[in-house]
């Protein structure tokens, strides 16, 4: 592995987020709220799920059907976009993730694909006469004003890259999730460094933990140029904010209050469009109820920043990175991610891979050290 990649992974290893991923995956969030309290609360959440989460055919004929009897392993493609900012132009994914659930439906893994990863894209849109090109992977989602068309193209791109086919998918409006902060009041965010905003009034936010309202949190998750590793830093801040929304909701008792949980689930549902084929979201949520969000394993595709022709990309380099990446894709296809995680801790973002991380008990109580996320 190159020195720069090693440095990046070492820095990231001190900023773990053990269960941020389930905030981005709507059924993960639903699992938390449905299984988190009394039966009546769970029923309220299930009923709300059925009426609040939008569905659309995102994968078309490429979808692997789940069936009425949900069985693992399962793979889902998750795209994160900012639909408010991009409503008048083709949506470009800010995050691309593969969500894998093992055969027993008890363990979940989420692999982040860097949005600037340099790949071959089957359809590069009208500017390329819809021909193939080499570009950043998130360009694959921007070929049409129709989000579903862009999603299908990204799915084809990811399948070409990894060999993984998908049982379903979701488009998540990440920044829209932050609207939930208005319902909660404020959330705690822990900044790994001082941040001076490049937007609006150029507010200053000090390193360490503090309480932030919706407007401040939105400003923070949009910053990237202040971080030495650029967009990786912004991704960590997004992860931190999304996680803390659910931490705050739990701390305020949303998971045990029928009235409150309906509001929370409706807010989540408004920011999500899903495609699970003929399988209902409710059936899927119930089938995944044994997954513990705090046991989520998260990792990233082995890669590092790369400049080409004056443009900044991310690339999986030949040698150790390429070997590790191909092993990752094979592990997803063959449901052996537990082995890959054990063999490649430098590419994972999990608490148990670093002795200096906080304990699971602290995180379960909503505790968060400065600089984590």
TrEMBL record:
Superkingdom per UniProt: Bacteria
Family as reported in the entry's similarity comment: Belongs to the LytR/CpsA/Psr (LCP) family.
Organism: Natronoglycomyces albus
Protein's recorded name: LCP family protein
Pfam families, sorted: LytR_cpsA_psr
Transmembrane segments: 20-46
Residues covered by region (Disordered): 342-373
InterPro entries: LytR/CpsA/Psr_CW_biosynth, LytR_CpsA_psr
NCBIfam families: lytR_cpsA_psr
Domain Cell envelope-related transcriptional attenuator: 93-249
Biased composition (Acidic residues): 349-364
Keyword Hydrolase: no
Gene3D superfamilies named in the record: LCP protein
Keyword annotations: Membrane, Transmembrane, Transmembrane helix
């Amino acid at each position: 592995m190159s020195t720069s990649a090693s440095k990046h992974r070492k820095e990231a290893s001190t900023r773990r987020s053990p269960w941020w991923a389930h905030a981005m995956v709507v059924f993960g969030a639903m699992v938390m709220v449905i299984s988190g309290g009394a039966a009546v609360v769970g029923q309220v959440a299930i009923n709300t799920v059925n009426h609040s989460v939008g569905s659309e055919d995102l994968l078309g004929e490429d979808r692997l059907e789940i069936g009425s009897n949900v069985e693992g392993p399962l793979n889902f493609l998750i795209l994160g976009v900012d639909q408010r900012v991009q409503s008048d132009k083709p949506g470009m994914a800010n995050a691309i993730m593969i969500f894998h659930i093992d055969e027993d439906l008890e363990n979940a893994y989420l692999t982040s694909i860097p949005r600037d990863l340099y790949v071959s894209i089957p359809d590069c849109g009208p500017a390329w006469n819809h021909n193939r090109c080499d570009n950043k992977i998130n360009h694959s989602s921007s070929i049409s004003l129709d989000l579903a068309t862009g999603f299908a193209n990204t799915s084809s791109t990811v399948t070409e890259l990894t060999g993984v086919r998908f049982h379903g998918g979701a488009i998540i409006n990440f920044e829209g999730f932050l609207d939930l902060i208005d319902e909660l009041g404020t959330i705690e965010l822990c900044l790994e460094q001082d941040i001076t905003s490049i937007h609006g009034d150029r507010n200053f936010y000090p390193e360490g933990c503090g309480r932030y309202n919706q407007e401040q949190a939105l400003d923070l998750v949009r910053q990237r140029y202040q971080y030495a590793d650029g967009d990786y830093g912004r991704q960590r801040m997004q992860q931190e904010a999304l996680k803390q929304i659910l931490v705050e909701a739990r701390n305020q008792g949303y998971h045990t209050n029928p009235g409150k949980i309906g509001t929370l689930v409706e807010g989540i549902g408004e920011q999500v469009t899903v495609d699970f084929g003929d399988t209902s979201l409710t059936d899927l949520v119930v089938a995944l109820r044994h997954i513990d969000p705090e046991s989520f394993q998260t990792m990233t595709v082995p890669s590092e920043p790369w400049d080409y022709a004056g443009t900044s990309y991310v690339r999986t380099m030949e040698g150790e990175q390429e070997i590790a990446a191909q092993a990752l894709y094979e592990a997803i296809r063959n449901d052996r991610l537990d082995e890959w995680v054990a063999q490649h801790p430098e590419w994972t973002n999990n608490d148990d891979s670093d002795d200096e991380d906080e304990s699971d008990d602290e995180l379960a109580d909503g505790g968060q050290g400065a600089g984590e996320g």
